[in-house]
Model the fold of this input.
Amino acid sequence: MAPSNGVRLAAETRVKGRYMKTHAQAVVIGGGVIGCSILYHLTKLGWTDVVLLERDELTSGSTWHAAANIHGLHDSANISRLQHYTMNLYKQLEEETGQSCGVFQPGSLYLAQTENREHQLKLQAAKAKLYGMNFHEISREEAEEKHPLVNYDGIRCIMWEPDGGNVDPSGVTNAYAMGARQKGAEICRFTPVTGTVQKPDGSWIVETPKGNIETEWVINAAGLWGREVAKLAGIEVPLQPTEHQYFVTETMAEIENAGRRLPSVADRDGEYYLRQEGKGLLIGAYERDMRFWAEDGTPLDFAHDLFPDDLERIMENVMRAMDRVPAAAEAGVKRVINGPMIWSPDSNVVLGPVPELKNYFMCGGIIPGFSQSAGMGLMVAQWIVEGEMQYDMFPWDIARFGLWANDRKFVMAKVEDVYTHRFAIHYPNEERAAGRPLRTRPVYELQKEMGAVFGLNYGWEHPQWFAGEPGAEDTNGFVRQNWWGPVGEECRMLRERAGIIDISNFAKYRVKGPGAADWLNAVFANNMPKAAGRSCLTPLISVRGGIAGDATVTRVEEDEFWVVSSGMAERYQKRFYDMVPLPEGTVFESMTEAMCGFNVAGPKSREILQRMTNTSLATEDFPFMRSKMIDIAAVRCLALRVSFTGDLGWELHCRTEDQLKLYEALLEAAKAFGAGPVGARALMSMRIEKGYGSWSREYSPEYYPHEVGLGPLCKMEKDFLNKAAVERVMAEPTRETLVLVHIDEDAVNASNADATGGEPIFRDGKGIGRVTSGTYGYTVGMSLALGYIKSGSAEPGDEVEVMVLGQPHKARILEEPPFDPKGEKLRA
Ligand SMILES: Cc1cc2nc3c(=O)[nH]c(=O)nc-3n(C[C@H](O)[C@H](O)[C@H](O)COP(=O)(O)OP(=O)(O)OC[C@H]3O[C@@H](n4cnc5c(N)ncnc54)[C@H](O)[C@@H]3O)c2cc1C
Done:
């Protein structure tokens, strides 16, 4: 039960005597731009019995003082789609409501000072072409014509987004509010929420000084107070506010005389933003010398307030802006805004139903609120009204963070890092160091000594690759980096001899009890193994009929099963497991922390392991997809005869306290065969050589089972979670097909780059699809990409173009995976 705390009343007298509903389908807490957009979109999707509660005036958090720049392009294709939707909605909203959104769309110029920025922008331009968005390269002359005040010296590439610009923050918020009201929503201002109490049936009582509202759904859109409102429901969210500054100059003659509105300038290498405001300029910066705010909680009496100016702090960035637009240096400062904004550890919104609570939706930590408000409101409304969003928005999902992410030191370190690197390029495979290590397993120190270069995997330190000596770090960029060679060595070692891969990051669950088989059959689409010692692969089906997950389920005993699935999806998939009630006496428990695992794979893996156990590992005794409890070097392990490498191999799962002992023994035994440790990047490369999909890349709720080759694993003769949805989508023609593509060797060698994911695929100049995962296939000598293409747009053997670095690279669709297409090695 949630406590009813004493949130101070912002305006006690003004709430007295006003009428307020006592029941609603959903209650949105917070009347900033996001809360109002959610309310508007709920009504748009047909939920009109909805209420928004705002403790003060609308806009009284971060919203009222925002610079409110709008941009359409983002590195993530789905976020771009939603930003695009947002930018297009503002004008429509004005027409619909008659409320001005103050939209200026003079266009945005994106400048690249470095080669990496050029790669990033060119890739974004290729994606824009695929998705039909306006974003393309222009010449310096064209740019000079569009914005004559910019000094383009040192700029190697200029992109143009004709729809870029800015809006009026309060106009937009009020337009959403008006649009929602027109459709029947109620908005109560000066009505602070003081408690959210869950009833035994899962519905909620939202408490305010004006009275209570009973509701099915609570939506926390309390912005700067997201943490405090979450606490009312007994939950913590990984958010932290900071200060952020911009200033507006006095009128500048050059702008006054321009006779038109000038485009905004995104010179991200300069780490500032700049646009016209009135007849002057607005310049803002994410400075290195940043300041946190409200570390112990956002003050409840803060509303339309600002902090004292501190321009000195952003002066370094401002000087770069002045070098770029020299006329700005002559202008006086008219107004400074130093206001708060609230961040998540990776600067993306924390959005979604909180997996541990029924019908409590969190939506907080939004940085580009004006670029994303409509898309975000639409996604929230879709989730609540339709049960799921139309896009895979895992990068926004609160479930990408486990409860581990609430560690305050971690949150602070990450927020400092994302604030100060707001405009830095985020490279493929990039692993940022801030806030780490957070979660380590017993082998961590040994792996470090062996030169492991770690990545962050659902909070855990996880070896990406092994450098020759300790202390090595990744270099970053769009082209092949320092790890490219060593990862190749690891792949070759495994394929020629053997390798030991730490797979402790896989999520593991135990289901035990008399109803275990029935429950698993009701959750997963495939038939569960009938006999102990057997395993099966199975999809988990999402609400719209897509792939919510893929798992290997092993029947260990008659009434005990072991489920292995994606580690990063643990909290996300909990929502699905919770949809099917557990039978009395049957237990479902996560073993991810309690158990660790290694995959020993490669042609010599049998010989290595056979020396360490009395159990026969011969094919006839331990065939593919079978399991046994075995002792390896006196460590009790659940051994599964599977390997994501596509090679002969075993997964060994042991108790966490035995992990170090098992690892040391495996490494020692492997030495005699010239085998050793292998990291996650090599595993990714090898699974692509074999054409295996991976969750969040090839498998996501956006793709249907028959499009990803998992159709035969959906057993339509039985009942399972979301079967009706999958039945519906499988009756429709296939929209897209998963393909494996071989990119031309000369092309990748000339670019010194492989596909990494997200690159558009073109055929005869037309966009037909996109890459989901890319790699160099070291043991097959091919640069490879898995991706989706529109069904019927190309066939195996056809030539296509993959836009590596945003440039066309000749490629061919493969008939079958280049590694072990018949599965002979896997089954050996
Ligand atoms: C200086 C600055 C410049 C910015 N520039 C841009 C930009 O150029 N482009 C862009 O896209 N974004 C920009 N932003 C970010 C943008 O302002 C935010 O993304 C956006 O305002 C977030 O809106 P919100 O609705 O989530 O939160 P908020 O605006 O904080 O709104 C939350 C609301 O919840 C209410 N509330 C809180 N607690 C309760 C309670 N207990 N009961 C009832 N109501 C409650 C609050 O009163 C408040 O009105 C900028 C931010 C700052 C600080």
The first strand starts at residue 23 and ends at 29. The longest helix spans residues 77-97.
